Amino acid sequence: MVRRPEVQHAGLIEGSRAFVLLSVAAAVVWTRDGAALSGLLSLATIWVASSWVMRSAAPPVLASLVEAALIALLAGLYLDTAPVLLASLVTAPFVHGLIRGLRGVAETLLVQILLLAVLLALLGRTPDPSQIAELFTWLVTGLGLGLVASFLIFATPADDGTAAYHEARALINELNELSAKLEGGLDPTSMGGSILEEVSDALPLEAVVLHVHRDGVLLPLVRRSTTGEETMDSSLPALVWEHGETRVIVPEFAFPVLSSGTPIAVVSGRLAATVETDPASLALALDQLATRLGPSALRLDTAQLFASFRDAAMSEERRRLAREMHDGMAQDIASMGYVVDALISTATPVQEPALIQLRAMITGVVAEVRRSVMTLRTQAGSSESLGAAIATLARHLSDVSGIPITVTVDERTSRLRHEIEAELLRIAQEAMNNAVKHSKATLIDVRCSVQAPYAEIVVSDDGLGLQAGRRDSHGLSIMRERAGLIGGVLDVRSSPSRGTTVSVRVGHHTNGPPVPSSAHPSRPSRGL
To answer: Which fold would CATH assign to domain 188-304?
Structure first.
């Protein structure tokens, strides 16, 4: 198999040529052999041209043979005046052995020997015994190096598409070993909280926020406030992230958090009302504080990288499971339904009721599988907001169940953190699924309000309320756990006459009312 040198063993190829060229140059300088200087320049020109040709679209076989021929001609021409150039004969077998294996070594040596013999015959020269010995030595050395290069070809497995997985496996194993040695774990929120504690210890503050950059947006990760009010100039963090410089507009400030000289987050805050300072002094103090935060910044950067890797892996696994369920289980169950339909058409009056009941059960299972597939595939991403993702889920559930689901969304352009949006979406999914499956509702209403860092989702229905035994159900406990993970509050209210209302809230309201941005009513195909 032919392998292009720029992909396979490029460093060895260039290194071998450079080593021989430097060795020959040192010998020429040491002996002060002026006659060999032109041969040295010619050799350098040949190898520069060969490197360029091998990186082009030219066939490697042709490039190999042409290089071998040119080097053989050069060595033959300078056999009497500059025998030191014979050392260049070893490189062609080695290089072409790396590119083409044993066949390349054999063809290269054959070309070199034939051209040397033809050239010497045309020039009417008969090498003396010492020259023959020197030619033999360098050609045998080239053969040995070519065999070594061929061994490297066979010892290096071809990439069958699993090389990236081997590397990933080694890195994940190393990560597992290293994670046991990490004192603070790999939770970005905890790491961000530690940074804010250091900032709060260094400065008297009313409020402080740590912002991180995700999906092209600067989002608040952790916040601290002594007054309960967190309204600050939202433009300062964005300016700091864009320019990488500390900004101060007393009493507010923002400065970049650096890891290895690269901004990974921004801290913004507001000084306590009792503090009096000039902007220059505060900016200097903040720059010094940013330097002291270096170790904490490294821990936060590592935690964010791990969180990004974990989220990507989970997202891909969810999509894979959705594909497997849709293409495997769902199709098999649907086929069973067709068989039952055929049996019903030929069934006796005694058999028909049981078969109809079986068909209804199969239809219910198919609907449940479709809901599960949609749940796995739907997620709030960089291009779809939380409200849009909830509306997509509601539209699908309404189509499958036939129950009208209306979704009203109030969203600003600012986004919540990715992990918060993901947990809120799953809570809304579980609440809507419960209403569809258990409440016997005729109408489900969903309201989503997002004014980052505040968000509230309310799912209400007009069903029969929570039934006996459902209050401590697994679904409700999971929703409470999800809310707890993001610092949210889950509230469940239910009565037989008013149905069930599930609400979840995160963050705190900032000043000013939310700005309505869109409404997404979802209706079943049969209409409301």
So the answer is: Beta-Lactamase (3.30.450)
